[in-house]
Structure formats: structure tokens, C-alpha cells
Design a protein that fits this description.
Blueprint lengths: L1 E2 L1 H7 L11 H11 L4 H8 L2 E4 L2 E2 L16 E4 L6
Parallel strand pairs: 1-4
Antiparallel strand pairs: 2-3, 2-4
């Protein structure tokens, strides 16, 4: 999981590994690992996500498959865009 902008600031790190089959599973693991960080959880609730550089959009996160060694990027809303 790569964090950008406000997500990176709230997480306190630029990225961290997760093992999951779907985006939904990965996000559940993030929420569990960072249960004591409500600011990060709040930011992630408003993020857009890229999986292997492809926009997830409005797809159900539990249906978005992950590839081994793939990348998830958490993109918070950016000012002006």
C-alpha cells in the first residue's frame, strides 16, 4: 500500500506491505493494523484507489483482485483537483 499526501502524513510512512487477494481485504487489514489511528482511517475513507496503476473508481473493493507483488495507491482528495 502506497500512501500519498494526507494519507502519507496520517500514516507516518510512505508505504507498507500487505498480503490480500482483493482491495477490500487489503483495506480491512489496513484498518485493523491502524485501528489506533482514527485520522488515517478517516482519510482512507475519502481516498480514491489505484491498483497496479488502474483506477478502481466506484467498483466494490471486495471485487477488485490484487496481483502478487502488485501495488495499491491511496490517493486522498487533492486541493484544486
Amino acid at each position: 500500500m502506497r500512501y500519498w499526501a494526507a494519507a502519507k502524513a496520517a500514516a507516518g510512512l510512505p508505504e507498507e506491505p500487505y498480503e490480500a487477494a482483493t482491495l477490500g481485504e487489503a483495506l480491512a487489514a489496513v484498518r485493523l493494523r491502524h485501528a489506533d489511528n482514527p485520522k488515517l482511517l478517516q482519510v482512507l475513507a475519502h481516498c480514491s484507489y489505484l491498483v497496479d496503476a488502474q483506477q478502481v473508481g466506484t467498483r466494490d473493493h471486495t471485487t477488485v483482485p490484487l496481483t502478487e507483488g502488485g501495488t495499491i495507491e491511496a490517493l486522498p482528495p487533492f486541493a484544486g483537483g
